[in-house]
Design goal:
The radius of gyration is 30 Å and the shape is elongated. It has a domain at 42-112: TonB (TolA/TonB C-terminal domain), CATH 3.30.2420. The longest helix has 22 residues, at 4-25. It has a 3-stranded antiparallel β-sheet with strand order 3-2-5, covered by helices on one side. A two-stranded antiparallel ribbon has the order 1-4. The protein is built from 2 helices and 5 strands; from the N terminus they run H-E-E-E-H-E-E. By secondary structure, it is an alpha+beta fold.
């Protein structure tokens, strides 16, 4: 009796069993999580100062980096009038955070709302 077909079937079965075991072992593991970002805690944020002569409307997003010591840096001024760019850059530059210990990219959206004063 030729035992070659039996050996081949046994090898195929062993390979299939190994594949199933590896596949099923992945079901028992929990996914790994990347390192979590430190939480940003804002300590100081003065009101923005927009010159009265500045005419702007809409929302403006300012991207910046909170440095490891809590100051802000790498401030990216939004597209828009120069007076808005300057005012929002100065505003975000005055933010102070509790030192996170590492640099963290963040951002803030500012919405320009205007209304008439008085009756």
């Amino acid at each position: 009796m030729n035992s070659a077909p039996y050996r081949i079937r046994r090898q195929v079965f062993a390979a299939a069993a190994l594949t199933a075991a590896v596949t099923l072992s992945g079901c028992d593991t929990t996914p790994t999580k990347g390192p979590s970002k430190p939480r940003l805690i804002l300590l100081q944020a003065p009101a923005p100062v927009i010159p009265e002569s500045c005419e702007a409307s809409g929302s403006y997003f300012v991207e910046f980096t909170v440095l490891s010591d809590g100051r802000t840096g790498a401030i990216k001024a939004p597209a828009g009038p120069a007076c808005i760019q300057q005012a929002l850059t100065a505003w975000v530059g005055a933010f102070r955070y509790e030192p996170p210990g590492a640099q963290i990219t963040s951002g803030v959206e500012w919405l320009m709302v205007s209304a008439r004063k008085g009756p």
